[in-house]
Amino acid sequence: MLSIKDVAQLAGVAVGTVSRVINNSGAVKPETRRRVEQAIQELNYVPNEVARNFKMQKSKMVALLLPSIWHPFFSELAYYIEDELDREGYKLMLCNSSGKPEKELYYLEMLQQNKVAGIVGITYNDIESSVSTDIPIVSIDRHFSKKITCVTSDNYEGGRLALRELVKAGARKPAFMGSVTAVYSETMKRREGFVDEAKAMGVDYVVYEKPDPVTDDDIYYGEFLRDHADVDGVFAITDMFAAKYIERAREQNIRVPEDVKVVGYDGIQDHAYFHPLISTIRQPVEEMARMTIQLLYKKIRGESLDLETYRLPVTFRPGETT
Amino acid sequence: MLSIKDVAQLAGVAVGTVSRVINNSGAVKPETRRRVEQAIQELNYVPNEVARNFKMQKSKMVALLLPSIWHPFFSELAYYIEDELDREGYKLMLCNSSGKPEKELYYLEMLQQNKVAGIVGITYNDIESSVSTDIPIVSIDRHFSKKITCVTSDNYEGGRLALRELVKAGARKPAFMGSVTAVYSETMKRREGFVDEAKAMGVDYVVYEKPDPVTDDDIYYGEFLRDHADVDGVFAITDMFAAKYIERAREQNIRVPEDVKVVGYDGIQDHAYFHPLISTIRQPVEEMARMTIQLLYKKIRGESLDLETYRLPVTFRPGETT
């Protein structure tokens, strides 16, 4: 049986060089690459799956569809996803898909043509009708159907935790502040957890929601401040919602945290140089990114997964707003 | 002479569909694509450069090498670069190269193998020895040699502007605060502009620099605060340097802007929800991104460029620190 050593010997290079050529990872001089490829052909060397993929010209590229790489939560996620892919020699193709559903469909087509090996998607489209169950796609946060594996933070527990922290900080009438997407999304569980925990604790609460996306901040926050003046705690669906609320509350001389305690979700502030540092439910971004890629590899290899949705635990990160 | 219409007729599809197949943009059903490709082959249709590239299997992929996509300046840049590439049907491959020089060399090899059409690089390596003049690479910010086209903000004018704004705000002894990379970089002109303008205006000034990267903030800022207690203005080489200085100054009861005026560089804060909003020299990120891609296209097409370095004007964005 032929081994990688035979190839290396015939090409007159080290075994590591042959491996780099086969895996298409690391720098190899073009002429060296040619010698190795010639030796592989001459010997008709097809030792294992890696080499077979190489001969079949399987793509070592994964597409990442994000609403916008500019958003700090998504750029942190992309950072770790690229890092995890790099460990196996995969490359990252990046797509800002916000407001452009046709871009997402285009990447699905690339997947069908084997131009990308898999897709990681934070997608706003309902692509359910376009895909089959076993296609190598892993979704983050947004959970459309049973067909697509989803990795998410534990939004429900996050909502419960936020309610408890607000009460602990002294809030007696906390509000949930969010927006509702047309298609069901995992993030809606943030409200569910908040409401269930308020009921369980016998706490008076408010739910304030508008359709997503919120396009007019003046109306959104103005209406909340006008109609819910008695609220003394806010759990905002994201840190950005929290930051915007705090700014507008300040304009009306409502002090945070003295008058109103605020808890956000995400943990986009990775340092304490800008204020307020929002007290928040921190998503385990790095773990979510690495798990997503590990699950994607399994799907690429054709393995079946145990679960449809993988939920990772969240933590409360105290800041300056509770 | 054959036209795209002949292909469309033979394949039994619309002209737009043929165009989408040729440009590899937009969704086309696999079977339709096959029909179009067959018609192209049958007619031996090679009408223009776009189609020729298609037949030559030229890559429609551009690699973007960034130190880290997580940094807000780079994620804004990546956002606009992807958007500009998308207009011509190019895809973006993203690589966090910080601290991994071998990754940059790997992408250079992909370029030589036509797996990517071009590279946009904010690179820390001196890749001068590895590349030829006409290779489709455009660098942002970091300018190593005459071989690589560079797009940058006008760092020198930015430095002059910062000095003037500090003086205008009342500073009588401003300091430049930065770090020095081993290889020459365009960003060093920020200090040059600052110093030249201070000399021209007859203003007393301080230059405080340490080798890049700054690894120990305690030492870096501690030493500055200890040795330069008489400074009443700071021009920090980036907004993050400014933010870190402000935080540490506050711990020593130095108020910004009352005691010390601070101007940063970049403009990473794209909203005013977190404080302090740093007064800063704002880089024209969107323009830099779009110009970079337009120049890269010219290099891909083999056109020669007028300049080695393209400098885009900066503006002063007043914040809460002057």
TrEMBL record, chains A, B:
The keyword Kinase does not apply. It holds the Pfam family Peripla_BP_1. GO terms for molecular function: DNA-binding transcription factor activity; transcription cis-regulatory region binding. Keywords: DNA-binding, Repressor, Transcription, Transcription regulation. Residues 2-56 form the HTH lacI-type domain. PROSITE patterns: HTH_LACI_2. PANTHER family: LACI-RELATED TRANSCRIPTIONAL REPRESSOR (PTHR30146), RIBOSE OPERON REPRESSOR (PTHR30146:SF95). This is LacI family transcriptional regulator. It comes from Paenibacillus albidus.
